[in-house]
Amino acid sequence: MFWRRAAHGRVGFRRSLPELGLLLLATLVLLEGSVLPLGAASSPETGITPGAGVSHGHADKNHSETKHKKPFPVLGLNYDSVKTPFEISLWVLLASLMKLGFHLLPRVSSIVPESCLLIVVGLLVGGGIKLIREEVPPVLDTKLFFYCLLPPIILDAGYFLPIRPFMENLGTILMFAVVGTLWNAFFVGGFLFAVCQIPHASLSHIGLLPCLLFGSIISAVDPVAVLAVFEEIHINELLHILVFGESLLNDAVTVVLYHLFEEFSEAGTVTVLDGFLGVISFLVVALGGVLVGAFYGFVAALTSRFTYHIRVIEPLFVFVYSYMAYLSAEVFHLSGIMALIACGAVMRPYVEANISHKSHTTIKYFLKMWSSVSETLIFIFLGVATVEGPHQWNWVFVTATVILCLVSRVIGVVGLTFVINKFRMVNLTTKDQFIIAYGGLRGAIAFSLGFLLDIEHFKDMREIFLTAIITVVFFTVFVQGMTIKPLVELLAVKKKQEAKRSINEEIHTQFLDHLLTGIEDICGHYGHHHWKDKLNRFNKKYVKGFLIAGERSKEPQLIAFYHKLEMKQAIQLVESGGGSKLPSAMPSTVSMQNIQPKNQPPPPKPTERALPQLTKGREEEIRKILRSNLQRTRQRLHSYNRHTLVADPDEEGFQDIILKKQKMMELDRKIKEMANYLSVPSHPKDSPTMSRARLASDPQAYNIKLPAGGVPTIQVDLASPQSPDSVNLLDEIGKAEQKEDSGLMMKPPESNGPEKAGEKDGWRDQQKLTRCLSDPGPGAEEDEDEPFLP
Amino acid sequence: MKLETCLTGFVSSHVRSNTHVAPRVTPWLFFYPHPFRKEDFNGIPDLASNPIRTQIVEAFFDQRNFSKDGDGKVDEIGFEEFLVVMSHFRPPSLPMTDEQRDSVRKEKLRFLFNMHDSDNDGMITLEEYRHVVEELLSRSGALGKETAKGIADAAMLEVASISVGHMEPDEFYEGITFDHFLKLLATFEIESKMSVRFLNMDTITLCK
User: Fold this and answer.
1) Contact A322, A344 (CB under 8 A)
2) Rounded CA gap, A458 and A467, in Å?
3) Which residues belong to any copy of the EF-hand domain (chain B) (predicted)?
4) B162 and A633 in contact by Cβ < 8 A?
5) CA of A566: which chain B residue's CA is closest?
6) Which residues pair with A730 in a beta bridge?
7) Does the pLDDT value for residue A471 go beyond 50?
8) Cβ neighbours of residue A287 under 8 Å, at least 6 residues apart?
9) What fold characterizes domain B95-207?
10) Is the pLDDT of residue A165 over 80?
């Protein structure tokens, strides 16, 4: 059966690639649909033995006495024992291929967010399966969802949570998460109950408490949906963290309300004492979850301190401890999501200081991979589960739900913002409020919670609820998800700033922190900054020393940041072989030579210069070396595509470009000659691996290896009077510092070797850097955000 | 301790009244007889652990922060001058038009600039910038000096690259002027970051 379908796919092979890709995907979808029933069909036949041939043999043996031997079965069919893993893999494969497929159709994916497309795919697959088999396997199993699909996404979010904006806006986020969700739940629940009382709507069997329960399920903003949609619209950091933070923190509220109303639905009545206990329960759930997460985070950090010798399993600790935090919280009915977030956020600064660079990359990639696949699967399953049902469509209920959700969200946001703005430094404008309200998407969590409802107890209501939930989810994801991007453009909402953190901003951030702390101290006002500073000092003094191995615990943040940036620039230089970098560096030919301390003889007359005359060629060399040592502000210059190395011929200094490019090509060749000494294969000029390695928020960089039994490397001191050919075995850190210093100091060249010397030095830099690349050294970096609290 | 509560009370009353900073006759002027000196500030305990305390204290005695044309340093200040300096940290009052926002930004960045530009020549030179970074890292101990130099140099280079772009080898970049400084911190939301809230200050104690 499926051979025919595969052949069908081959028909249009002369069409262009996207269409072919689409057909291929369609084929795979149908393949999926046909294999699953095949698996299901073969299951009734199990129970005998694996292998058709052998079963025949046994049957024969059982029935007849003759002992004649059947020929050994060369080929047999055994699907049952691999059924479950096979189906799981097939689903995951489908999800991944879908993701690939969407990038073959750029036009569609720019209009429709990925989440919508995935739900449509899920609908198609579900529809296909239903057509073939009349019955859809229950894929969105609640256990599967809450224990397998949700944790990776939340861990990814929590581990890479931008702590600084989160903490700065914590009050606002909590207000939205707690008060907003409560308001939504009661508003929707209450009004729905009123709606249910309408005589001819046949809904009168739904009592108040089930309505409130439904309200609490439907009112929570869903982190998966928010992530999926907001990822594509790139709004500014503040709005993103507000909506996203709200979606994460409202889990505690949802958990408490859900259990509360579920318990009371069975009991039938609510007393004041119950309400009071509910409030206490909320505090326990929220704080308990955070504490459990923080505990596991600290243990993970402590463990990572000792993984010096077994680097390979470092990522495993991160994942397992986080998952344990989630499960432990779930055991006690605490908020698993908050535990996971707390664990990731707490462990991160310490773990990152301890683990190797490769482990860091592994963690990052695994988290992104799992969360991406999980998200895709969730949306596909949502589509499949929609087809599966069970559904009971009730016009009144469903439309009332949708309208009430929207209305309550808008009123809630506006009302809360009015109150919040009195306490905020930066007020939320109307545009912000609109985006926050519009970004309140519901998703799979609501659906799963609905699924969790006890079938027995909510006999008639469950289907109605599920249908309504699905409708709201579809509405928010499709309508709001699709229109939010044009609306953001239309309203000219501030977008995310692309510029990376520069060293100046970092300096001033720190400076401002200290300044404001000082001012607060002068006033005697123990405000935000004062406590932050106290916490930082406590962290530095006690916690870091305990949780971070070796010398790293004493490194101040500014220095770490600077080293990281430097190394990143160096790596970029090496990986591209240097040549293509040059054009982009051209517009700024400022070097340290231009920056003189003030007490130089003021305006140097043309005849007497502060610097001796340098030949043009020598200057070029020096400038090139300096550029390879110093940080460059590439982000503010033209970003030249690696493919377009040719600069505009009208640009001044084009000759210079050519000259320099030639020189860098020579360097390149030299490096390639020495390639057999390097254990790292040189990357091709446009290496998609490296470019994709730069995911938005983390600069990847090595840190200079610290002298923990320092590995000696071969270095040539730039300004040393020795001949360039003699080498010194020196301690690496001392060298690095000195080299930076001497490179920057730009003394009038005492290193008066021939031009060749400069090149050799440059080359040796490269060697040192590539050696760093090949080293699975313990150097690691802190992220550009800050250790504990900024 | 006394200084703190006096200042606290005074400042809170001023800020809540939400007027322009102008010399106002207040009860406390009568109670706190002598003007402040630098040593008074040293008595504040929490300030001792702040790496840039010297510069902060200096800022209070810098006449450039008192008025637009001020110049040089003084040894003593009165309440009015103290308030003028504190008013740089006023939270922005909303809604702000763009011109207002610009002027607030300029005012606050000017304050920062004055803090860095210690010799008052209108430019932050490499030495001064190095000093800033060294102060910031002054708590870090051994690693400080050399790396501080490196960081400051790199930062300076960055400013020059942004502001001036293309420079011939014989041109000199002498220091960061105020305009360059503005450009540098253009993306820094200084109007909201450089503010201190004086919210819950109901207790206004009399100082004896």
Assistant:
1) yes
2) 14
3) 104-139
4) yes
5) B154
6) A713
7) yes
8) none
9) Recoverin; domain 1 (1.10.238)
10) yes
